Amino acid sequence: MNIIPTAIPEVLIIEPQIFGDSRGYFFESFNAETFRRDTGLTVTFVQDNESKSHYGVLRGLHFQLPPYTQAKLVRVVQGEVLDVAVDLRTTSPTYGKYVSAYLSGENHRQFFVPRGFAHGFSVLSQEAVFQYKCDNYYAPQYEGALAWDDPTLNIDWHLPAESIELSEKDRHHGLFADFISPF
Question: 158 an active-site residue?
Fold first, then answer.
């Protein structure tokens, strides 16, 4: 696998090795030993999730509070998304900054989002199937979120504002300026 660093060193873009021929392709989407060796990270994933969304859907910016914080390894099986990770760790030099990556069924890239980050994505294709591995179980009572359109974060979701579709819950998240980080 090829590890591509981002502007936030702990957030990684991962390109698996693709084996293709006239029949199609094959790749290991996850191998714990290879992941540990190539990233230097010791992460034990315990839950896999999948979502399907159409163009304009924006999910996020979500995170889990301690003691249920989660690291995520995300990928797109079909379609294309812009995936975003926001650093919520107060002791980090990149606190309040974000990085993003294009993930698609074509490029097979994966995005590693460590604990202490908010995460979200916008769907740029007609439809997208999104999968992610988590290293801790989802606990709804420990869920946190920030407003997708927070003016301090100023995230470019690569969608026209009139095309963005949110869940009712994602319409009402707080601002980064009012956020007190437990990380």
Answer: no
